[in-house]
């Protein structure tokens, strides 16, 4: 019998109504394993808000507060303030929003919370579009992707702007910890959460959460999709601790982006020329990340 | 009794301090700004033990208050005009969550065009959110009502949020003598916030859920019922306050010289103080007029209004806001309440003081003359509107 | 069963586990574990998005068919290829 590589306790329940192969629910499952039961979670509108099914059910075994779409971080700040007022210090407060709730409609409140340095953990589960309303583009939708609001059509109207870089935005707030993670690498995610959870201030996690329904791939491939995103460095694994970048997992050999793109229906319209643009952008971002890690390491304590 | 001299905004802040608000989340906006500054001073000096979240918007202010209240902390915020409008979504959220948050709103006109002066469009536009609404006429009432509002809101039969209104500048920046009650007496009056349900890791539940049509209506009915029941609680709390502190603010409707009156005006906020002077002047001339001050607009005091309708032949309703399409809200609600009344006096709407335009006593005396005469001239009149043929107004 | 207004709490409280949702009825393909071949590495347990794989006292993998939706991730990630997805009858 092998040793478990992540905590065994399940604080997310079965019976949630996520789609087959849902990446977002894995993000929640791992997060709660890392934090344990003395945790409170705020959830805005989005896929994760409807996971419990209908009243009076809950898919979490920890306190859960449904909040309005754009208020996740402000709500987490409010919970923390109330706990502070009551002298309760041993409870983790989590805001758990999607890419729409975080990078778009919720970014103002998140910026406020991060700038104030409120002592909360914020997780953006990134499925790269508004998936709960049915695959509309978000600012986290990658360049080249089809969504129902970037429908390609006959004019090639796919998303023409690159994905918003939320980790960089959060690093610019001078928070103690920001990191990427992927549902395909739970040990890495759990380790990062456990490293950061007791730091004072706002901690930010950008969790890559493949979505079979919205990305148009077969549900058994969710984990493989995260692996390929990592291996191609479409989505690299790194952390930024007090401004110091560190690549936490480095692929031995980077695979070409086509290996990742070709498995997803949302990219099937792309021609070689457009794929080349994506490849160049991924190369540039990877090189810049390595350069940042190299440049900032002298500031590590 | 030692009296302090303070602005309405200081009275808001001292009300929150005496109520021992545990979490404050607020964002500055004219003319509310000195509330957030005063609270910051009180917290910084250690006089007030609160977690004060300096949020980046009013929307986040209300979101943070909601989350704090759901976690079992007494929460306070204050705003005005556009800040209140920005909160709109969260106001509905707070009431739907049944969280007894108390908020000061400094009534200010809405832009465009920009105006920072007194007008009720901001709070009237939030009438349907499920918040109780108190309109204050002086700074003493502001301080007392913040504390009273918590007592009403936190009553386990109510559990609804409450707004405490004061008029921009007329109260917010005007100094008046205010009796600040001793903390111990306020503590006796207002016990700590103890909600039936809160976020608690030792008793983990989820809050709000997805409720399909087979139960949503029932939960909405519960809010409606709580709002109905709040009438009695507001009255009782004001009476209890009077017993303890020696002053009442009139419950839901404060009556002034209504004995044997033939005509009455219904008004709210600082214009009712002016109206008292106007009523006195008219009474001096032998005119039988009185004033009914609408202290509470939500819940609407329809029984008190029907009682007044029994007593007088003519009512003028003064609105410092307008519901584009038909009449001011105080008027349409009054008229609505009277339809079911056995006696229906003459009723007319006077839209007055919009955007902070001054209302001197002689203007209200002019209205009282018209109310007494049951002069018709249309259902709604914009009183003091400058037209090419109009008399010179102030 | 819909409740009456008198029987409902004052707020909608999520007090019941989502495990009452029997999401197993969604399934069109069913994972079958070959216990002989399984070396109990728990990769399938780790990656199940539906918390529908349990570990029994002997360390064996148990599929919770009440909740397994049949996504097939367990089959895809199994390093020993000892999980097979078969059509539901």
Provide structural commentary.
The complex is a heterotrimer of chains A (301), B (394) and C (89). With 301 residues, chain A is α/β, with parallel strands linked by helices. Chain A is built from 10 helices and 9 strands. Chain A has an 8-stranded mixed beta sheet with strand order 3-1-4-5-7-6-8-9, sandwiched between helices. In chain A, α6 links the parallel β6 and β7 (203-208). In chain A, α2 packs parallel to α4 (107-116). The model of chain A has no long low-confidence stretch (mean pLDDT 97). With 394 residues, chain B is an alpha/beta fold. Chain B has 2 domains: 3-245, Thiamin diphosphate (ThDP)-binding fold, Pyr/PP domains (Rossmann fold, 3-Layer(aba) Sandwich), CATH 3.40.50; 254-382, Rossmann fold, CATH 3.40.50.920. Chain B has a 7-stranded mixed beta sheet, with helices on both faces. Chain B has a 6-stranded mixed beta sheet with strand order 10-12-11-14-15-16, with helices on both faces. A two-stranded antiparallel sheet of chain B has the order 1-8. The model of chain B has no long low-confidence stretch (mean pLDDT 97). By secondary structure, chain C is α+β, with helices and mostly antiparallel strands. Chain C has helices at 43-47, 73-77, and strands at 13-14, 16-17, 29-33, 53-55, 61-63, 83-87. Chain C has a two-stranded antiparallel sheet with strand order 3-6. The radius of gyration of chain C is 17 Å and the shape is elongated. The model of chain C has no long low-confidence stretch (mean pLDDT 97). Classes of the chains: A alpha/beta (301), B alpha/beta (394), C alpha+beta (89). The interface between A and B is large, with 46 and 41 residues.
State the distance separating the first and last CA atoms of chain A.
39 Å
Structural class of the helix and strand makeup of chain A?
Answer: alpha/beta
- Reported by name, the CATH topology of the domain at 35-81 in chain C is Alpha-Beta Plaits
Q: Strand tally of chain A, please?
A: 9
Terminus-to-terminus distance of chain C: 30 Å
Q: What portion of residues of chain A belong to β-strands?
A: 15-25%
- Whole-number mean pLDDT of chain C: 97
- The DSSP helix count of chain A reads 10
Main beta sheet of chain C:
2 strands, antiparallel
State the strand order across the main sheet of chain C. 3-6
> Helix content range of the residues of chain A, please?
25-40%
Question: Quick one: overall form of chain C?
Answer: elongated
CATH architecture of chain A: 3-Layer(aba) Sandwich
**Radius of gyration of chain A from CA coordinates:** 19 Å
| Main beta-sheet annotation of chain A | 8 strands, mixed
CATH architecture type of the domain at 35-81 in chain C: 2-Layer Sandwich
- Low-pLDDT residue intervals, each spanning 5 or more residues of chain C: none
């Amino acid at each position: 019998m092998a040793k478990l590589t992540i905590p065994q306790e399940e604080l997310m329940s079965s019976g949630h109504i996520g789609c087959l192969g849902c990446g977002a629910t894995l993000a929640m499952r791992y997060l709660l394993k890392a934090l344990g039961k003395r945790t409170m979670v705020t959830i805005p509108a989005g896929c994760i808000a409807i996971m419990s099914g209908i009243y009076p059910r809950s898919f979490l075994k920890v306190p859960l507060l449904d909040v309005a779409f754009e208020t996740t971080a402000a709500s987490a700040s409010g919970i923390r303030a109330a706990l502070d007022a009551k002298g309760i210090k041993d409870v983790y407060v989590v805001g758990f929003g999607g890419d729409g709730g975080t990078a778009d409609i919720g970014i103002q409140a998140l910026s406020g919370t991060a700038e104030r340095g409120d002592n909360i953990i914020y997780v953006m589960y990134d499925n790269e579009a508004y998936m709960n309303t049915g695959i509309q583009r978000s600012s986290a939708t990658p360049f080249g992707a089809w969504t129902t609001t970037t429908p390609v059509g006959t004019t090639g109207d796919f998303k023409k702007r690159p994905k918003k870089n939320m980790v960089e935005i959060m690093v610019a707030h001078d928070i103690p910890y920001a990191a990427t993670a992927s549902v395909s690498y739970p040990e890495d995610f759990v380790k990062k959460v456990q490293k950061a959870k007791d730091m004072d201030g706002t901690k930010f996690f950008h969790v890559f959460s493949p979505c079979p329904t919205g990305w148009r791939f077969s549900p058994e491939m969710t984990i493989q999709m995260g692996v390929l995103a990592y291996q191609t460095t479409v989505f690299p694994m790194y952390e930024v601790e007090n401004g110091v970048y560190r690549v936490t997992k480095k692929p031995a050999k980077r695979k070409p982006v086509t290996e990742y793109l070709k498995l997803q229906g949302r990219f099937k319209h792309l021609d070689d020329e457009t794929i080349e643009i994506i490849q160049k952008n991924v190369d540039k971002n990877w090189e810049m990340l390595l350069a940042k890690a190299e440049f900032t390491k002298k500031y590590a304590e | 009794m030692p009296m302090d001299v303070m602005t309405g905004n200081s009275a808001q802040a001292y009300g929150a301090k005496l109520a021992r608000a545990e979490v404050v989340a607020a964002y500055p906006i004219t003319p509310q700004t000195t509330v957030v500054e005063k609270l910051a001073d009180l917290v910084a000096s250690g006089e007030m033990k609160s977690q004060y979240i300096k949020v980046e918007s009013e929307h986040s202010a209300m979101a943070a208050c909601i989350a704090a209240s759901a976690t079992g902390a007494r929460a306070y915020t204050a705003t005005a005009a556009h800040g209140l409008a920005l909160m709109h979504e969260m106001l509905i959220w707070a009431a739907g969550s049944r969280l007894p948050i108390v908020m000061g709103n400094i009534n200010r006109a809405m832009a465009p065009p920009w105006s920072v002066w007194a007008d009720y469009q901001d709070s009237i536009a939030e009438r349907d959110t499920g918040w109780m609404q108190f309109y204050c006429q002086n700074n003493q009432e502001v301080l007392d009502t913040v504390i009273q509002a918590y007592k009403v809101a936190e009553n386990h039969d109510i559990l609804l949020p409450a707004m405490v209104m004061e008029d921009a500048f007329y109260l917010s920046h005007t100094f008046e003598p205010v009796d600040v009650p001793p903390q111990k007496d306020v503590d006796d009056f207002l016990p700590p916030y103890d909600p039936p349900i809160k976020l608690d890791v030792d008793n983990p539940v989820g809050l709000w859920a997805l409720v399909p049509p087979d139960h949503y209506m029932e939960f909405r009915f519960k809010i409606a019922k709580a709002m109905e029941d709040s009438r009695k609680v507001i009255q009782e709390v004001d009476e209890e306050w009077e017993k303890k502190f020696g002053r009442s603010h009139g419950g839901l409707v404060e009556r002034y010289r209504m004995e044997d009156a033939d005509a009455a005006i219904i008004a709210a906020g600082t214009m009712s103080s002016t109206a008292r002077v106007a009523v006195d002047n008219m009474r001096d001339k032998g005119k039988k007029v009185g004033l009914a001050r609408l202290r509470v607009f939500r819940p609407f005091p329809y029984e008190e209004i029907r009682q007044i309708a029994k007593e007088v032949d003519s009512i003028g309703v003064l609105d410092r806001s307008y519901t584009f399409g038909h009449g001011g809200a105080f008027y349409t609600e009054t008229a609505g309440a009277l339809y079911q009344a056995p006696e229906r006096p003459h009723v007319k709407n006077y839209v007055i003081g919009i955007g902070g335009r001054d209302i001197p006593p002689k203007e209200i005396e002019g209205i009282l003359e018209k109310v007494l005469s049951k002069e018709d001239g249309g259902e709604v009149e914009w009183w003091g509107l400058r037209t090419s043929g109009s008399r010179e107004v102030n | 069963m819909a409740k009456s207004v008198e029987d409902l709490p004052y707020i909608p409280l999520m007090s019941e586990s989502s495990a009452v949702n029997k999401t197993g009825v969604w399934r069109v393909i069913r994972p079958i574990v070959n216990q002989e071949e399984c070396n109990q590495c728990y990769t399938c347990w780790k990656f199940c998005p539906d918390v529908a794989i349990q570990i029994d006292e002997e360390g064996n993998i148990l599929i919770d068919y009440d909740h397994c939706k049949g996504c097939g991730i367990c089959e895809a990630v199994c390093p020993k290829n000892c999980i097979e997805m078969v059509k539901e009858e």
